[in-house]
Amino acid sequence: MKQLTVDDLENLSLGSAILGSGGGGDPSYAILMAKYLIEKYGPIRIVSVDELKENDLIVPLSMMGAPLINMERLLSGNELNILLQTIEEKLQRQPTVLMAAEIGGANAFTPLLAAAKTGLPILDADMIGRAFPELQMSSCFLKNLKSTPAVMVDCLGNRVIIETSSAETLEKIARSVTVAMGSSSAVGFYLMNGKEVPGSAVTGTLSQALRLGEAITAARNVGKDPIQALIDISDGVTIGKGTLIDIDQEVKDGFLQGSATILTHNEKIRLFYQNEYLLAKNDSEILASTPDLLVLLDENSGTPLTSEMLRYGLQVTLIALPAPEIWQSIEGLELVGPRVFGYDIDYQPVSQTTIGA
Amino acid sequence: MKNSYIIGVDIGGTNTDAVLVDDQNTIICAVKTTTTNDISIGFSTALNNLIEQSAIQPNQIQSIFLGTTHATNAILQKKDLFRVGVIRIAGQRPETLPVAFAWPQDLKDAVIGGVETVGGGLECHGGPLTSICKEEIRRAISRLLEKEVNSIAVIGVFSPLNGSQENLVCDLIKEVVGPYFPISLSHEIGGIGFIERENSTILNASLKRVMQQGFCSLQMACQALKLTCPLMITQNDGSLIEIQRAIDYPVLTISAGPTNSFIGGVRLAGLENAIVVDIGGTSTDVGLVRKGFPIRSLNKSNIGGVSLNFPMPDVLSVALGGGSIIRFHSNRPLIGPTSVAKSLTSQALSFGGNELTLTDVALVMGHVEIKDSQSERACIDLVQGTTIFDQVKEKLNKLIFKIRGEYKDLPIIFVGGGSALLPPCFFQEEYQMPSFFNVANAYGAALSEISGTVDTVVSLRNREETLDKLYEQAKQKAVDQGAKKETLRLVDQQIIPYSYVPNQMARVIVRYCGKRVSTTHK
The CATH number of A2-203 is which of 3.20.20.80, 3.40.1610.10, 3.20.20.210, 3.50.50.60? Predict the structure, then answer.
């Protein structure tokens, strides 16, 4: 059985930020917390989807709300234990495996915090294969799994059990609960039996995040170009390289919306984002769009930049990685394609190859 | 009598530099001395030499502006640090990140004397997280005092929004131990980001004794020289604070160095926008200055392994300096990364030592002349020397190319003692080495202004109105620190929206800078 140790955290942080595609928040505090808990309680077991037993109870976990809140109002450390306990009370069954609801960004670390303390293993899978802003933007929604009962807990131990008829309603209610919880909450939803996971979850995404991170650190250690190393192992393509010259942003309907302009040696590329980077175009054509992963990196270090970090004058490289296969389907595009985010264009995959499964 | 002269001083790890500047910001005189263990001795020597050489009376000096690495050195050497009791005002009682978790163990052992968490703290909209209980706080204080801590640091969740809970804890501590007990409050240091603000507040609390001694000894040295003008200290963003505030909040002075040298560099060249290359004894730092201010780094600042919440300039560094040791590998010279650093005049070949350094090569090549050096001891020829300096040029050009990016037309300014070693032909067109290049740090300090910064979380629903209010707050802070109102200008603004939070909440950072009100005595 594979294990996740303290030495893997930096790679996971880089890899999950790449899969975050600009969203998912800054993992710098999450990585410290995971380090502390793993040092205290020992390494975390990782199980793959084919190791699951039929009667396993799998709990996808994530933090909801503004990631920046938790950089001031630190997690108490009891949120996820209370959450798992509430599920047990409700279902009269013990959770046996934890997983990240969202592998992109700081939420890749959320199940680790609970796994370290409870000794439960984490699943090498998630429900998105990247980051997206709403609960129903999930592979489990595509497979018509039940999103509730869902449990939400805040840092003071307040808890709410939600049962709804649809994931969209869950999203709406959970959003309001999160605001009442001080704009940050822990949430567990799309609880699954072992036999439901194959075909519903995006598998192998934890190892994928680790691999992407390893590619960058390995290249840095031998003085090679980390961005090239990343492209080499991910079937990615370079969209453009240059200086950020214009950043225009606002918060609309809860999302950080905006555009950044990259001045390259021969053109201006506009990168549109709503938390995640969703669309890149130049004066004449679309260069890449959601659900492909647009990844903006610091040109020298290869460090992925979240949309909250954008600043005039940064030297950046924009690359695109192919979307997980499920999002390239017609149903997938109806849920997370460019039109869902208000861009009236057709999705053109950057690459014929795909990642994830 | 005219009294419009300013003295700028830089007390570094190796050298103490001082410049005398007139009201047109022209350097009248510059001196360099060695930094002493008791920093006031080197400081005193530098000021004394400056006054003697310039033949100016002490009462003609309007102010002394000083930047120093004294606080950084105290932390790196763990010298005379206070043992600190930490009080977290955090109603959620976080067990996910212990105090000083990521610190180097030896520093943690030297500094952390006890930790208490009490109820309270704020939510991001300013409302209470949980209620605060005086009795609980009193018990926490007495437990810390039982552990014989010398100083207390208080950090509340979202306290930059409202410091009243921290002020209450401060009052309760004073009730027990009297008004002179050293207390550090995190909202006075500022910055959203609990861990970095906590780290800064704890380091501040631990530095109080050593920095009070240091700054007071500098004040006494001024008095002995009959310099009755104000002594002000440059803080991390390059702006000035009163010495009393530097004594109360020494951590604010911890990393002024690169900012001073970059600002000094562009202004020595008479520019506002430029790339500054600072070549020292061990390393070369390159930074980009726009509109008179260095551009900020993406990374968190880090002193002695502790991450802090101060903006640092974006610096590219390479291990290349006057003391860089040169070795030959199958006839190919390799420069650095090791350096003889401070021991140049004992370890370099030209000074009787055994190491071939970049300074030796510059002497052989005739780029510089240094008194009492014997370059014939460095057994290399002109061809080898040319190869070595070609490598130096290549390294420098690479850094400059990297930082320059789209700013193709920016001039490149060389400062720092090591710049003198470069071949004269290197300086042409946009590559300049201004006069007084080797005291750019002290000159940067002399040019410092007063700033006021607000870093908080607000609702941007009424965007214009809210921003205007914050501008006024920042300006008022600058004026309270002694800035001339009509010279204030906005030098930094960052708006970081909180996604998924209603009412368009955002972290907003604004900073105003302006000239100091001159205290002209007739």
Answer: 3.40.1610.10
